[in-house]
Fold this protein.
Amino acid sequence: MRQKSFLFLLSFITTTAIIAQVGGRSTYQFLNLVTSPRQAALGGKVVTNYDYDPTQALFNPASINPAMDNQLSVNYNNYIGDVNYGSAAYAYLWDRRTQVLHAGITYVNYGKFEGYDELGNATQSFSGSEVALSIGHARNIAFTNFHIGGNFKIISSSLESYSSYGVALDVGVMYIYEDWDLHITGVARNMGTQLKPYETQFEKLPFELIFGISQTLENIPIRWHFTLENMQRWNVAFSNPNRDEIDLEGNTTSENINFVDNALRHMILGIEIFPESGFNLRLGYNLRRAEELRIVERRAFAGLSAGFSVKFNYLRLSYSYSKYSSAASSSYFGLNIDFQ
């Protein structure tokens, strides 16, 4: 029963990341879940923000900077089904020489499952959860506009009676051209290994390469974001059998996946309106999510996301809403506290 229960839970975990072609190839998939309502509202996996928000450093350690000093961010997501997850991040300016130290935590709780044996008889219930603790630091490369940073993560996973531990490293590089308010960055995430497998077989971690660029428009209070995700694997598209075409003779023609299809499914688009004010709006569109979760002949608005944030003195409240399909959506809540 335990083996069957674990296999069921593991298959469920890989689908919660909403990654059809990319998921299922590695363990600890929760490491690539969106970590804040701001990131979720901009389409997910945005890595180009360089400001007060310490949660950004959970995805891109090169974004760690002095503006994060004494900022605490706490985030919660009511995900699909009974799954919920969240994150917390804090940064501290040690001194001007060593700059900023960053610490964070990401967790996911998969809820409770009813156990059954191979004959369908009820057994004891079980649950699953995972957590990652990280510590990070970034530095400006002297006499340049480049910033480089790293996160070291300790990972723990408990699924029914199985448990696993691992370590991982994130490395990011960001170029900032202040005259144009332009940020260009690249991040290599989740480079690591399992220290203890669930049973005997060691599994890969969900390594990912992300590239991003963003800029605030001159004289217009809008910051645009363009992100390329999963660049470590070009072929992320797949042929959907629901879109097969059958002619009058009964011949079936499968959906044709070409270069453009693959290119588009790496892209995430987002904009922030009034990005530096006490109130801002955020909109995003995840092209891969939209295509993979699109229902044939029905408008489901999959891939769209939106949110806002409001600042009250030393508190900033954030909320976002992401649409996955006509039957699934998710809300994100965040609180940023300035202790200065």
Observations:
- The helical segments are 2-16, 37-41, 259-264, 287-292.
- Confidence is low (pLDDT under 50) at residues 1-20.
